[in-house]
Amino acid sequence: MTALPEQRSNLVARSGPPVGIVCGGGSVPFAVADGALGDRRIVLFALRGAADPKRVAAYPHHWIRSFELGRLCRLARQEGCRELVFIGLLLRPKLRELRTDLLTWRLLPRLIRLFRGGDAHLLEGVIKIFEEQGFTVVGSHELAPSILTPPGAAGRNLPNEHNLADISRGLAVLRAMGPYDIGQAVVVSRNQVLALEAAEGTDAMLARVAELRRIGRIPSSGGVLIKAPKPQQDLRIDLPTIGPKTVEGALRAKLDGIAAVASASILAEPARVAEMADRDDLFVVGVNPDGSVR
Description:
By secondary structure, the protein is α/β, with parallel strands linked by helices. It folds into two domains: 6-145, Rossmann fold; 148-287, 3-Layer(aba) Sandwich (Cytidine Deaminase, domain 2). The chain has twelve helices and 13 strands. The strands form three sheets. It has a six-stranded mixed sheet, sandwiched between helices. Strands 3-2-1-4-5 form a five-stranded parallel sheet, with helices on both faces. A two-stranded parallel sheet has the order 10-12. Helix 3 (53-56) links the parallel strand 2 (42-47) and strand 3. The radius of gyration is 20 Å and the shape is globular.
């Protein structure tokens, strides 16, 4: 295990039961860790090939591979972690790429069944496995409520009447898609659905919109990216997330703005997101489930 840097040791040594963060890619896992440092000891279980090694090094951590279930359980118990948080970007591995330790091998038929479905189906099944191993899985927002998207605009810009109509339609589309475990994002412009998120993820979907504009298949600008959790989604896992990369993608796609359901999505690096949005005249807004802005 990597030693803790001196400048952070006084923070993580504070009293309270330890919690393990199973850490994928992006900045959100570290925002969660920092948001919880005041009263919890944090240990990262960083996923190789996903988590940023330089940022992981600032915290107590162990490196694991995707679906090394037995190793993760053993290390978490060794650290005294009875609660686990799963957070961060991770591409779904192929079954043949799984690193099978004894527990994973024993559960392989079950894992194969879990892979025959959408991401929510897979993640909910994995959570159940860890609960059966004696762990409590908690949501990242429960550990660090400050990461949740607040209601209202992140910067100075607000959606106009047409944008609000697109947001309302986008949320309706996501509610209709939800039972099929497809995705958490849609792009709508002037009541037309331009793109739905599926297995490619939000960034690739926005790149697709940008390409459609380039070849003239859709109008040259306008529209809103809307993100919301799936109906009946377990909010402990896979909350929709907005961050600087999302803003960059929305700008390349020439959208008017981004909307996410407040308190049911994550806003990563909010100050930077607001700065980028204001600089490029884009709105980023937390909305009610019906699409209205508080």
